[in-house]
Amino acid sequence: MTISAVGSLPATKVLDKLLADAGVAGAHGFEVLRLVRAVDHIYDRLLYEVTRDGPVTVPRWRILLRLWIEEQLGQGAVNPTHLSRTQQVAKNTISDHLRALEESGLIERELDQEDRRQFKIHLTEAGRAIVQEYTPVHARYLNQPLACFAPQEIAQLQQLLSKLHTALLAQIGGCPCAVEPEQEQPIHTLE
User: Fold this and answer.
1) Domain locations in the chain as residue ranges
2) What sign does the dihedral 8-14-17-18 (CA atoms) show?
3) pLDDT of the chain, 191 residues: tens digit per residue
């Protein structure tokens, strides 16, 4: 039985019995995982739909948006390791995205003057223009499914998901490979 099958009534009863026999009270962790993955998958599909004809892919738009946010917070240029951590992707994946963004003229790399083995990444004017033009479009599109929620329900959902994120980090012992919510400077609809 797969985790995705847990949501059906017969599968749930069978799984509940297995867990009860082992002294585990309920399969709610499986159901939460299934729902979180399903929501994540649908949000990714929505983002890909809205960016299909745009100038950059979803992961590259997220990088541009992160760079713009860092700029607005006064951080200026950032290193690829920071981007890898905030985007929750491997360093080689970030390198591939950065190379493509640089070739497109949307970012620039410069040698870090304090550590000449490192690069600092910053947006070009073209990169800023993409963030400013497309981010409101993406936000409107991603906010549409939430229109059926009251503002306090949206706040509660965000609070509960944040609490779940913190609990999961505690479960893995605050693994350094995981991004702490305080570090990632949340941007309401992403990351």
Assistant:
1) 1-53
2) negative
3) 445 555 567 877 888 888 889 988 878 888 899 999 999 999 889 888 888 888 999 899 999 999 999 999 998 788 888 898 988 888 889 999 999 999 999 999 988 777 777 788 999 999 999 999 999 998 998 899 999 999 999 999 999 999 999 999 899 886 544 444 444 434 443 44
